[in-house]
Design brief:
single chain; about 240 residues; alpha/beta; Undecaprenyl pyrophosphate synthetase; 6-stranded parallel sheet; about 45% helix; globular; binds 3-methylbut-3-enyl trihydrogen diphosphate; binds magnesium ion
Length: about 240
């Protein structure tokens, strides 16, 4: 099990999570899909706390993809309301726990009232330095790459410069940070347009557990497994290099 370091810094990693399976969790219980999304918020809260305690540096949660606008209008409206309610309820708790909260993705299609709440939550937690929590809403990895490429204006940027452009288009901070560990719940093994550039060398972990059933213990097990993996980035194992 990953245990929390005394100074909270051991795992300076970027973990990204595709929180999938809310709808199926609900329908197998005879509940409306929105009940699954509400249950999913409880899981998100537990995983954020576990990540903070484990010393994760950055946590990016996929909450709503650009393609999720194609869902039934009632589900989309319920999700937008739930985001707002969750931000209102959780931003104080984030501030108290040293968690800097930000929202990545497009802003121009979100309801104005949600935009206002996002700005307040980001403002309230702006000075926090313990963990960066990013919630991806109206996010598309491919659209982000396209918009960043347009900002490059016909030049061929370095990878570092391009990462900065990517962050610019999605409000992502100083520069888009590579994902170290990508987790997807719900049993599917695909990226669904999440952080395509940033996941170039991400370790991938898939679990069949639906997001509302995912627990802090399972999250910590995945983290511990990640720490045992050998990442080579195209090179050779350390002993073979000497
Ligand atoms: C993920 O769960 C949450 C969002 C996409 C908002 P789903 O709603 O995709 O749940 P399933 O995959 O249909 O079970
Ligand atoms: C990806 O899940 C988006 C989120 C979890 C927010 P989807 O459920 O929308 O993805 P697909 O349709 O299974 O690829
Ligand atoms: Mg899904």
């Amino acid at each position: 099990m990953a245990t929390a370091p005394a100074d909270g810094t051991r795992l300076a990693v970027h973990v990204a999570i595709i929180m999938d399976g809310n709808g199926r969790w609900a329908t197998t219980r005879g509940l409306p899909r929105t009940a699954g999304h509400r249950a999913g918020v409880r899981t998100a809260r537990a995983i954020v706390e576990a990540a903070r305690r484990a010393g994760v540096g950055m946590l990016t949660l996929y909450a709503f993809s650009a393609d999720n606008w194609s869902r039934p209008r009632g589900e989309v409206t319920a999700l937008m309301r739930l985001f707002r309610r969750t931000l209102l309820a959780e931003s104080r708790r984030c501030a108290d726990n040293g968690i800097r909260l930000s929202v990545i993705g497009r802003r121009d299609r979100l309801p104005p009232i949600l935009l206002q709440t996002i700005a307040e939550a980001e403002g309230m937690t702006a000075a926090c330095a313990g963990m960066e929590l990013r919630v991806a809403v109206d996010y598309s990895g491919r659209d982000a790459i396209l918009r960043a490429a347009a900002l490059a204006e016909g030049t061929l940027p370095t990878r570092e410069r391009f990462a900065a452009l990517l962050a610019d288009v999605d409000h992502g901070g100083a520069a888009a940070r590579d994902v170290d560990l990508l987790i997807r719940t719900g049993g599917e093994q695909r990226l669904s347009d999440f952080l395509l550039w940033e996941c170039a060398y991400a370790e991938l972990a898939f679990t069949r557990r639906m997001w509302p059933d995912f627990t802090a213990d399972e999250f910590l097990e995945i983290l511990a497994d990640f720490e045992r993996r050998e990442r080579r980035f195209g090179g050779v194992p350390e002993q073979a290099a000497s």
